What we know:
Rossmann fold
Amino acid sequence: MADSATPAQEKQPRIALITGAAQGIGRAIALRLADDGLDVAITDLKSQRTSLDNVADEVRAKGRRCLVLECDISQEEEVQRMVEAAEQCFNGLDVMVANAGRIIVKPIIDSTLADFDMVFNTNVRGTFLCLRAAARVMIKQGRGGRIISASSVAGKKGLPYNSIYSASKSAIRSFTQALASELGSHGITVNAYAPGPVDTLLLRGSSEEYAKHLGLPDGKTLIQDYQARGALPRIGAPEDIANIVSFLAGKDSGYITGQTITVDGGSWMD
């Protein structure tokens, strides 16, 4: 399930655990937190092991320790083993980034219970399991911590053909608010990031499906339309999301909790 970490180059660095870290936003977060001086545990599905190992090599090239873990976050036992492995390897856990997620683009009248379960098992059940396990460790440690989850602009305003996904990401926003109120007395902050479209493989696949339902020629046209509506005329890069996670994981965000922060170039404004 895991491989060993390389030796630390400084005493007692902060420790981060990032799910869905094999590519895209998760990879960018792992690399950014390594640049910030954290040692990291990175996780994804077993099928993503080669990509995870490549990310680990990039982290270690920055002089940080990296633990590679395989985990299906929808499975309670696997999440527990994942968090325990990170805690034992690094002697603690300071930052939990529940980044892993799934999306489906389909009219609700054509959606099935299997579609619903596929999205909710990862986005809601999986995030719940990760947040619960991390909170237990951080309370036990007694040194505070940062819990950060992946919501979406679709969790703030439901989007057509994204009903299941939108509902799942709205649940993350509610988790964030409720858990922040529970954990504040322990010095633990709980926040989420809400990206708009980000240039990843996930976006390229879902945008093609979305364009079909909207009667647009292709996913590229859909993205161009989105860019035209934003205050900043571009879609996001994974590094844009990693930047907000870096802030939320750091000391300068110590008085921010219970927030779901939109990162979308100004297309959706709270």
